[in-house]
Amino acid sequence: MELVTTDLVSRARAGDGEAFRALTAPHQRELHVHCYRMLGSLQDAEDALQDTLLAAWQGLGAFEGRASVRTWLYRIATNRCLNVRRAASRRPVKVWDMPGAEMPEPTRLGEITWLEPWPDELHDPEARYEQTETMSLAFVTALQVLPSRQVAVLVLRDVLDFSAAEVAEMLGMTVDAANSALKRARAALRRQNVPGVAVPGPSEEALVARFVRAYTSGDVAALIELFTDDAVVSMPPIPLEYQGHEALTRLFTMIFESGRRVELMPVRANGQPAFGAYLAGSGSGLFVLTLAGDRISAFTRFEAELLPRFGLSL
């Protein structure tokens, strides 16, 4: 295997594009997932992956073979993602623009307006780097509020199983600094109490069916019963967030009293139940549910422009 890799590297350095593709293709999927975790946005992850491949092609002359090609590519991808995270504004905030519906006062304004869901059709359940719980919206969102280098260390160490020495080398820091960053990142995640992803089963199917009935019929009381006491509704890139039964009741009452009734088309995102929402035959949004036992702990509404990513029409 080493001889094959060495041969591909030599040929790629000489300008052989096919050799470069053969060298990098086995790692592109996991690099895409890695960029998504780091950035929380499917579009940003795709852009970062392309930047990574371009940088790898241009930087082959500096590849000394001291680390594996996979480790070298992860180093490039991680640092490209860190550059993106340093950008002051990655995605413009959008204002609420639903005709005939004035939003109630939100509980708070959300910070992660660039968040996007990951289509389950891109998911490989056999891949170690795609553990379902580390693809959940809650986990990915939690990463976005941590300091960037802590995120990098946490993902590289706890999700991808790189050693402390490898991570320190990738990020240009000491092993002690890497271990310290990991400790702080783990503590921050514990404070956020990030939930995992429920395994799909009869209980999920029943809950999802009740949600569909309540939402499509505009039954506010039945809908609110399905949410945990501290459930959150968010709608990136619109920064408005609503938490708790009282706030959610005001929100859904406003939506349903406006006369909006949607058809829901089931899909899955981030290992969670999701729906394309259609109003009068046109896509109006993408809903993703986070479940906690037999209740819904989060409802995230995304823009309709994402529907084609999930095999749905606009």
From TrEMBL:
Residues 26-91 form the RNA polymerase sigma-70 region domain. Its EC number is 2.7.7.6. One of its GO terms (molecular function) is DNA-directed RNA polymerase activity. It comes from the Bacteria. The keyword Signal does not apply. Keywords: Nucleotidyltransferase, Sigma factor, Transcription, Transcription regulation, Transferase. Belongs to the sigma-70 factor family. ECF subfamily. Interacts transiently with the RNA polymerase catalytic core formed by RpoA, RpoB, RpoC and RpoZ (2 alpha, 1 beta, 1 beta' and 1 omega subunit) to form the RNA polymerase holoenzyme that can initiate transcription. This is RNA polymerase factor sigma-70. It comes from Actinoplanes friuliensis DSM 7358.
